[in-house]
Amino acid sequence: MSGQAEDLLQSEAEPVIEAGAVIEMAQPIDAARLKNILETALLTTQEPLSLAELKKLSDAPVENNLVENLLEQLAQECAGRGVELNRVANGWRFRARPEMQAYLDRLNPQKPPRYSRAVMETLAIIAYRQPVTRGDIEEIRGVAVSAQILKTLEARGWIDVIGTRDTPGKPSLYATTKQLLDDLNLRSLQELPPLEEMNSLIEQGEQAPMP
Amino acid sequence: MSGQAEDLLQSEAEPVIEAGAVIEMAQPIDAARLKNILETALLTTQEPLSLAELKKLSDAPVENNLVENLLEQLAQECAGRGVELNRVANGWRFRARPEMQAYLDRLNPQKPPRYSRAVMETLAIIAYRQPVTRGDIEEIRGVAVSAQILKTLEARGWIDVIGTRDTPGKPSLYATTKQLLDDLNLRSLQELPPLEEMNSLIEQGEQAPMP
Amino acid sequence: MNTLTQPIAPIPGVRIHGEPLLEMPQDLYIPPDALEVVLETFQGPLDLLLYLIRKHNLDVLDIPMAQLTRQYMAYIEMMQRNRLELAAEYLLMAAVLIEIKSRMLLPRPPKASEEESTEDPRAELMRRLLEYEQMKLAAQKLNALPQVGRDFELVQVLIERTVGQRLPDVAVEDLRQAWLALLARAKQNAHHKVRREELSVREQMTRVLRQLRHGEFEAFENLFDAGDGIAQLVVTFIAILELSKETLVEITQTETLGNIYVRASRRLTAE
Lengths: 211, 211, 271
Fold this sequence. Notes:
The complex is a heterotrimer, with 2 copies of chain A and 1 copy of chain C.
Chain A: H1 2-11, H2 31-43, H3 51-55, H4 64-77, E1 83-88, E2 91-96, H5 101-107, H6 117-129, H7 134-141, H8 147-155, E3 159-164, E4 172-176, H9 178-184, H10 195-204
Antiparallel strand pairs in A: 1-2, 3-4
Helix pairs in contact in A: 2-4, 6-8
Chain C: E1 15-16, E2 19-20, H1 35-41, H2 45-55, H3 65-81, H4 88-105, H5 114-118, H6 123-144, H7 172-189, H8 199-211, E3 218-219, H9 230-245, E4 249-253, E5 260-264, H10 266-269
Antiparallel strand pairs in C: 1-2, 3-5, 4-5
Helix pairs in contact in C: 2-6, 3-4, 8-9
């Protein structure tokens, strides 16, 4: 490993720096080189690097001032570029300028997140059985339904509380909203897949197609 | 339909399809700005970006040539810096030069494990003899190959099953992935170290074609 | 005393080149208790054979079988002596070596059966050794290539995605799948009756309840939209009856044939 690194270094035109090599005393700090190393470290790390950490990158002991100067230089060199070097609470870090995000989003065909099965089943029950209480949903699903699930769907604007049932505890009654229909590109709930058809699907094959 | 296609063709050089907006002349591509955006995208993404992806970063349709020129410029601008822009199997990406590793290790002492000889020999056989079955690998190594070894390489994303051999038991055929090439900073299998010329005896038709 | 110094004394009966076992290749001699480690350093019988061949500068293409077999057997014996669990491949290889050696002792048959029997019995072993060695070297070179994370790092500058994170997309198909899953489970549990139900009624129930949300009485006829077709009006009527049945609404009529009023169940709206 280290032998290999050495080989690589030797074949470079640049002067050789050996990891952990003892630097001759009183060797002047090569500021340009240190700046290079600082930049590389900051470019490869997403978390901010503190001054103390950055100082570790120098082979010879180095003043805070010098490191900070180099960092300022690096920051200035970012003028007009898509990234900038910021000083934040925990240290220094590069980040992409916010106006670049629109472009970078084009690259991120991140798979859209998916709702959990619990969320989808809850939504399905509310859609097909509205208005329902949380208790109703739990009865059909056979398991507890966390408040978080209902909150998620409410925050999305897909369900809301349209009243309470007149039973002990006065549970809220949930129904789906027009927003859900819009988002599903439906004109009315009746355009949801009919339940009977699904029933037959289940009956035919023992193995239900699971989501 | 065809009218629409025509419109699209006519406005080819135009930036965006704004309903009703009449854009007079073909807007020239701002190369400096595009280079900026390309650089930012590459700096913020660890995975290599393909030319097709990079072209999406331009507001107006752009030639491969132009993008490649800009990438070459970016690569050249890295001269003397601690990072470099490389072309690998899956596209373009920045990396820190290996000679920086000794410094970066000071900040982040955890290193991925070095793989055992068994793992590396298995990988080598898959790389140079692909596609191969587990049986093929065992035949060459002269020992059983544990499922764990193959799993390790699969989990790392370096090999995958590309089919089965049509023999009893239908053994899986393993091959290396582009990810392996990316991780070794290579563009293609041909950039792997050439196999050692063994004595001519072995080459009497036994030698598998080299990838 | 003498018996306790056994590691220093030559292991009886095991001789290589006429030398006691202790004189085995220097770097290969290991105290018996460390043998396990050595065994692990070999990737198998081919690796061990290659070591013995390379160590003694033997030509793979012209392996002196007697010598090689003797060394190999000594090694195996040493492993067994120390009761190390010996992989079957090592023993198999011993058998192969002995077989080759014995075949070489036999007089070569005349050229009668061309191909097969005139072939040097060592050929197959040589082929395997060379092929293994080739891959072994390739593995070393492969391992020497700079590897991401180990020998170099990738650049990754932070990009803050401040704008609201992407919300999951849901399609009708997802709802259908969710319901199918519920059905499948209900079927297993057997006690859930999934009745056939008119969604339109449910939809109207929701609409009416929404309309009554203010808690005040609403004229019965206001709950209907005259623009709806007859079928829709019937559905709305059924919805109101269903709501009443579920005590979600109160229906009152102060006088016979007078106006009918509907409101959300009183206790229901009083918080």
